[in-house]
Specification:
There is one protein chain. By secondary structure, the protein is mainly alpha-helical. The protein is built from 13 helices and 2 strands. A two-stranded antiparallel ribbon has the order 1-2. The protein is globular.
């Protein structure tokens, strides 16, 4: 069962966070509304898609993880979590960072056929990332499942798989619809305040789009369920990097005006790589305190400060 869904089911306040906004905006949503990334992909706004992907990876692996450590550390002196699961997620995240680094460093810029080379390479990388994601699920859910069972999972009876998947799918769709409305509004407001496009796409959109997951992770950390918080933070980053990004690349051949590649702005790739290394470093021991959260948040704030001051022509 998804850790996010597990925490939402336990906490009535999170149900309100997810469903009350849906009720308020449901009458204003058209049946054909798309999520932000799919709409941007369909419109060929690939820079926005890439910035949102990189920003979500960095935000989940740094801000969500660091804030969970900090909030949990305020209430508990030392917290422990499953280091095996954290190391697996951090390893997958590092793999994704390497995959994003390759098109930026081994490109054929200035040569004939450079565009086609980048597209072909991105398709190959996307397939490999999807294979790695699938094998990771097989490892954690089937062959070595016992290594990833936390105390909270052992103490509660599992829901029927059909009910769990159906409810999770419904929540996912509703959150996606609400996120589109919120993200679009925040993006316009942030731009009107003079924020750089890089800051809006990389920081603001990622923070607003991941609000529901963050609420679940923070709530779990405050209840000393840090296993759940780490799983939500790193699991979300891994899902975006190894599943969402490759799927969008492949979908661009069918719904986009032109194929999209994985050739990101070098600064964004560097931030993703540093975020993966930071996450691996702070989760290696399986223990945390509030100051560990401060260190992780400081890395995120350094990135945010640089992007906020970045001139518009550099975004």
């Amino acid at each position: 069962m998804s850790p996010l869904f597990h925490e939402i089911r336990r906490n009535p306040l999170l149900w309100l966070l997810v469903f009350v906004p849906v009720v308020l905006v449901a009458e204003k949503l058209k049946p054909g509304a798309h999520t932000l990334l799919f709409a941007a992909l369909h419109a060929g706004q690939y820079m926005l898609v890439k910035a949102s992907i990189a920003g979500a990876i960095v935000t989940n692996s740094l801000f969500m993880l660091g804030a969970s450590f900090l909030l949990g550390g305020f209430r508990y002196h030392i917290q422990e979590f499953n280091r095996v699961g954290a190391r697996l997620q951090a390893g997958l995240l590092f793999l994704a960072a390497v995959a994003l680094l390759i098109p930026s460093t081994i490109g054929a810029r200035g040569l004939s056929g450079a565009t086609q080379f980048s597209r072909d390479l991105s398709v190959l990388l996307s397939v490999l990332l999807l294979v790695a994601y699938g094998l990771g699920l097989l490892f954690s859910l089937k062959t070595h499942r016992e290594l990833f069972v936390g105390a909270t999972e052992e103490s509660e009876a599992a829901w029927p798989i059909g009910l769990a998947l159906g409810t999770l799918a419904g929540i996912t769709i509703l959150v996606a619809l609400v996120s589109e409305v919120f993200v679009a509004s925040v993006q316009e407001a942030a731009t009107s305040f003079g924020m750089s496009p890089a800051f809006v796409g990389f920081i603001v959109v990622a923070l607003v789009g991941g609000a529901a997951e963050m609420a679940a992770a923070f709530s779990a950390a405050r209840k000393n369920h840090l296993d759940l918080s780490v799983s939500i933070a790193l699991g979300s980053a891994v899902q975006i990097a190894l599943f969402v990004a490759p799927v969008l690349v492949l979908l661009s051949y069918f719904v986009g005006p032109a194929p999209m590649d994985l050739n990101l702005w070098p600064g964004a790739v560097g931030m993703v790589l540093l975020a993966a290394l930071t996450a691996a470093l702070v989760t290696n021991s399986g223990r945390s305190a509030w100051f560990v959260g401060v260190l992780v948040l400081m890395v995120y704030l350094l990135f945010a400060a640089a992007l906020y001051l970045l001139p518009p022509q550099g975004g």
